[in-house]
Design a protein that fits this description.
It comes from Lepidopterella palustris CBS 459.81. It is built from 34 helices and 29 strands. With about 1050 residues, the protein is α+β, with helices and mostly antiparallel strands. Bound molecules: zinc ion.
């Protein structure tokens, strides 16, 4: 390699860009540099950051997988973390991150692999003010490094790209992790359908690859061919990982110069192989062999979709005009005149989305996806024709400058007021963007802003949406029913055929239709009246942002909470309204009726609210056990207009039979689909159900739904709205008068009768007595799912007990990395391994969750063993390490709020909980700070340790029907039978009449804390056997928050 002419000992890296086009509120500074090894880095100095991060994106992904080793790019992503020359311990990196409030992750995409981490900005706790650190540039370099967890993390991170070890003994384990990751996705329709479309693409284009890989493709089969797999992974790394293909982003508190020095010191060692940027030109993902086909696929979920894929171009160089945004704006429109409005009115569809994307440098796709109703599926050919008629309409009207002006205006406003996102999200996404050909000073704005109206480019873009340049995928569980093939990797049943001649002729005709041949209902959208005009923000600097909202109205009808934004300065607001009513969640019947009502209101609002939505102003209606929540959020300029429309639609809803039937059917499917989610996604519903006094689960709701009619809803919803208590939170760029006016609007539109506090629902949790050892079993309904799941929960106490809570938070922190390292990395129990606190209503506890092919009994044994071992670890832990963990959890609690919405959510959580504990974080910290190791050991021995007789446990076992390992049914049977006996035992005399089993004999195998598990068979009876906690109460007198002002 030729040396640069400049022969200084340490030449500075090239500074490529120093002035970044950035949002108005962005107080970070930026610099893009290129090291001598051609590694490009974006440095971000954020003096206020409490979390800092780095991400590195390598321009290689699954498109570069060898044909005989699918998944290799992904496997390399996993294996890269397994030890480096400088830090050979395989979990050195994660241990370091965890002890500094951090975490890491990575993903493999088609043409890039992205690695990132996040850590605390300082090794001190963030309440011990040390922000001067960022300003004293001249502070000596070594103390800067010592004080910055970022340096230590960067050092460990850089080594993955300098000298990874691919440790031999971690190989099998990590490949099992990949295998388990793949098994987790096997029953997931998104993955299945994505792969089906890939597998049925041009076999000469890398899009056809299977990107995740599994144990067979990465281990068994290559071994059988005599391949040295470790060498193969190292070769892939050597072949594709090169400094000039890497884009690094580092976000820190330190100055740009310091960050530049660190990056140069640590990343200059990454070898450069001068590899070309990957491109796939002159090969199309769909050729004449794949185009003009219709694919019928059978999903796991009950769903019906119609998808169009057009071969499109890669628009990477057209960032200024982004022609595909013009197409997706019109095709994806939901307002009057749109495709969706038309096919929805026909009763054919529930939703539509459209968009262009770059598949890889060299090719792109444009997709349209439509959610069909039952009728729509029967009429899918008509739906296809409508889409082509609309495309003809677009072609008939020359590209409209006013539409692009709207897109420009909205993209400008959104970019200008863009708020910070979490550090690692920022670095990870920017490092991926750096792979694209944006001018370096436009890295932030490039993807967001539409800058130019380019009618020629729009015309060209439109020319791809031709009747000879697409294919269709029709997804349904029962149509056409004669699927005759199976996709290789996921087993998805499908059928593929040429689009029939007469259908194709109709499509061509539609694509060439004239205005008179098209339905008159189709037309271009009207001017969007929701684009905000008033964007002023009155900025009043304050020393310390207010931590609580003020209660500005508090009477029998209404409580209104308000805070004018004092730290984010965006022309936005969030308004949340609870309409409190015991009726909403009283029974499964009323719960379902409330759901249906909510869906009907939303359905009626689709066309109206779409313009608002694309202008950054949205609304939502959520049904929950104590009522309905109505929210509006976004630019505050036209917020009251939208809120009024939503409230009026709620009050005046016209329950139409045809829409009711469509929505009922959709809700029915979503209830039925619930059972086909991943086991780990289901288990939380059961745990919340089992620790709350009240609440319903899916199957109870499902059994009510069929009997509910449109007439029921017509009479139900006026009842629901008849008597309410209204609670409002208005937060953001609003004045007190605005908040009061919005409140008046709710009151005067709905005009509810007073719901006195004596009728408000009380939330209570169940109390698990010391020594309890409960097991609840569910059989999973998906016959093809191979994964079991366990949620292992230990009850600790009432969430309002601040001391217990602090100990619980610290326990979760201490066990976080070890649980992952032991149960996932070392024992490879499954891809989904989670541990942490378990807090629901008033119930506070600790939990470990595992999804695995291993049986729940086995998993429970592993968890017990882990918790037993960890007791020793804790006892032997040095004071220093203990303090580090304490600092870490305190830093996490004190993490800064990133944007307006995160602050609104914090307030709303504390309002909805009815504890109004707005300063909970500070209380947590105050209770964490004095904790000693001895305190924690004592806590652990009482509440967590399997040997504790006082420990209270509930384990939820989700059992897969299909097991891939030879299970131990006999053992399970015994456990079940013992359990049945014990529940009867626990329930008292009447039940014990039927007992035929000996009581807790000495010969029995002890599980856990020595008590025999009680299997919960009758949930109602079991709940009745437990005591309930006291309900939620305000932690302070609400009058403390009042700021009612002078009465007029
Ligand atoms: Zn993975």
């Amino acid at each position: 390699m030729s040396e640069p002419v400049n022969s200084r000992d340490a030449p500075l890296p090239d500074r490529i860009a120093e002035h970044m086009e950035k949002p108005a509120l962005d107080d970070r500074s930026y610099r893009v540099i290129r090291l001598r090894n051609q590694l490009e880095a974006l440095l971000i100095h954020d003096p206020e950051a409490d979390k800092v991060s780095a991400a590195l994106d390598v321009n290689v992904g699954s498109f570069s997988d060898g044909v005989d080793m699918p998944g290799i790019a992904h496997a390399v992503e996993h294996l890269l973390f397994m030890g480096t020359k400088k830090y050979p311990k395989e979990n050195a990196y994660n241990q370091y991150l965890t002890s500094h409030s951090g975490h890491s992750n990575a993903y493999t995409a088609a043409t890039s692999t992205n690695y990132y981490f996040e850590v605390a900005a300082s090794s001190k706790t963030s309440n011990s003010k040390s922000s001067s650190l960022s300003r004293t540039l001249e502070e000596d370099a070594s103390s800067l490094k010592e004080n910055s967890p970022l340096y230590g993390a960067l050092d460990r991170f850089a080594q993955f790209f300098v000298a990874p070890l691919f440790l031999e003994d971690t190989l099998d384990r990590e490949l099992k992790a990949v295998d388990s990751e793949n098994k987790k996705n096997l029953q997931n329709d998104t993955w299945r359908l994505h792969q089906l479309s890939k597998s049925l693409s041009n076999p000469k284009h890398p899009v056809c690859h299977f990107s995740t890989g599994n144990f067979k493709t990465l281990h068994d089969e290559p071994l059988a061919r005599g391949v040295q797999i470790r060498d193969e992974f190292i070769q892939f790394y050597d072949k594709h990982y090169s400094a000039n293909r890497m884009k690094l982003v580092v976000l820190g508190r330190e100055s740009l110069n310091v960050l530049e020095n660190w990056v140069e010191e640590l990343f200059s060692l990454v070898p450069n192989k001068d590899l070309a940027r990957l491109r796939w030109d002159n090969v199309s993902p769909l050729t004449e062999n794949e185009l003009l086909m219709q694919i019928f696929a059978k999903p796991v979920f009950e769903m019906r979709t119609l998808d169009f894929s057009f071969v499109y171009r890669d628009e990477e160089d057209m960032y200024a005009s982004q022609p595909s945004r013009y197409l997706s704006h019109l095709i994806g429109h939901e307002g009057p005149g749109s495709i969706l409005a038309y096919i929805k009115a026909k009763g054919w569809a529930n939703g539509l989305s459209a968009g262009g994307s770059t598949l890889c440098p060299g090719s792109g796709t444009f997709s349209i996806s439509i959610k069909l109703t039952e009728d729509g599926l029967k009429q899918y050919q008509e739906v296809v024709k409508t889409v082509f008629q609309y495309i003809a309409l677009m072609r008939d009207s020359p590209p409209q400058e006013w539409i692009v002006d709207e897109l420009k205006r909205m993209s400008e406003v959104d970019f200008r007021f863009k708020q910070k996102s979490p550090a690692s999200r920022t670095t990870s996404s920017l490092s991926a963007i750096m792979q694209k050909p944006y001018p370096r000073n436009l890295l932030l704005s490039g993807p967001s802003l539409v800058r130019e109206f380019d009618p020629k480019a729009i015309g060209e873009a439109l020319s791809y949406l031709r009747a000879d340049n697409f294919r269709l995928t029709i997804v349904s569980q029962d149509f056409p029913g004669d699927w005759d093939q199976k996709e290789r990797w996921y087993g998805t049943e499908y059928k593929i055929e040429k689009i029939p001649k007469d259908f194709l002729a109709d499509i061509r005709k539609a694509a060439q239709s004239t205005a008179s041949e098209r339905p008159a209902e189709l037309h271009l959208p009207h001017k969007n009246e929701f684009i905000p005009n008033r964007l002023e923000v009155e900025k009043k600097e304050v020393d310390e942002p207010l931590k609580t909202p003020k209660l500005i109205r508090n009477d029998e009808n209404v409580r209104t909470w308000f805070k004018k934004d004092d730290q984010f300065w965006v022309p936005k607001a969030n308004v949340h309204i609870t309409l409190r009513s015991p009726l909403a969640g009283l029974t499964p019947h009323s719960t379902v009726a409330t759901h249906l009502y909510r869906e009907l209101v939303q359905d009626a609002l689709v066309e109206y609210s779409y313009d608002a939505e694309i202008s950054g102003l949205g609304y939502s209606i959520i049904a929950h056990t104590s009522g309905l929540d109505v929210s509006v959020y976004g630019y505050n300029d036209k917020m009251s207009t939208l809120l009024e429309k939503v409230l009026v639609s709620m009050r005046d809803l016209d329950v139409r039979e045809d829409r009711f039937n469509i929505i009922k059917e959709r809700l029915m499917r979503s209830f039925r689909n619930w059972d086909f989610q991943q086991p780990y996604q289901q288990v939380g519903t059961y745990s919340r159900w089992l620790n709350s006094e009240k609440g319903w689960i899916n199957e109870q709701l499902l059994s009510e739904l069929p009997s509910i009619t449109a007439t029921d809803i017509k009479s139900f919803f006026p009842q629901l709205l008849r008597q309410l208590h209204i609670e409002v939170l208005a937060h953001g760029n609003l004045y007190k008068e605005d908040a009061l006016k919005l409140t008046d609007m709710v009151e005067s539109t709905l005009k509810p009768r007073i719901l006195p506090p004596s009728q408000w629902p009380i939330r209570r949790s169940l109390i698990f007595p010391p020594g309890s050892n409960f097991v609840y079993e569910r059989k999973l309904k998906d016959p093809a799912n191979v994964n079991h799941c366990i949620e292992y929960m230990l009850y600790v106490g009432h969430d309002s007990d601040r001391d217990l809570r602090a100990k619980l938070l610290l326990t979760a922190q201490l066990t976080d990395e070890p649980v992952f390292d032991q149960l996932r990395t070392k024992q490879q129990l499954g891809y989904v391994v989670f541990s942490g606190t378990s807090i629901n209503n008033m119930w506070a506890g600790y939990r470990i969750l595992i999804q695995s092919e291993k049986s729940p009994e086995y998993l429970e044994g592993r968890i017990d063993a882990f918790l037993t071992d960890f007791e020793k670890t804790l006892e032997e832990m040095s004071e220093e390490e203990f303090e580090e963990h304490k600092r870490s959890v305190i830093n996490k609690r004190l993490e800064k709020l990133k944007n307006l919405t995160s602050e609104t959510n914090r307030f709303w959580t504390h309002i909805v909980s009815e504890c109004f504990d707005f300063e909970k974080v500070d209380h947590d910290v105050a209770h964490l700070t004095p904790l000693t190791k001895a305190d924690l050991v004592a806590f652990y021995k009482q509440y967590i340790s399997p040997s504790s007789p006082a420990r209270a446990k509930l384990a939820i076992h989700m059992l897969a029907q299909l097991t891939s390992e030879t299970d131990v049914p006999a053992e399970r049977k015994t456990l079940l039978e013992q359990g049945k006996a014990n529940i009867q035992n626990a329930l008292g005399e009447s039940a014990s009449q039927s007992l035929e089993v000996e009581i807790n004999g000495s010969g029995q195998k002890n599980i856990g804390n020595g008590t025999t598990p009680v299997v919960i068979t009758d949930v109602h009876a079991w709940k009745a056997s437990l005591e309930v906690s006291r309900g939620a109460r305000a932690v302070r007198d609400l009058s403390d928050f009042e700021d009612l002002g002078a009465k007029l």
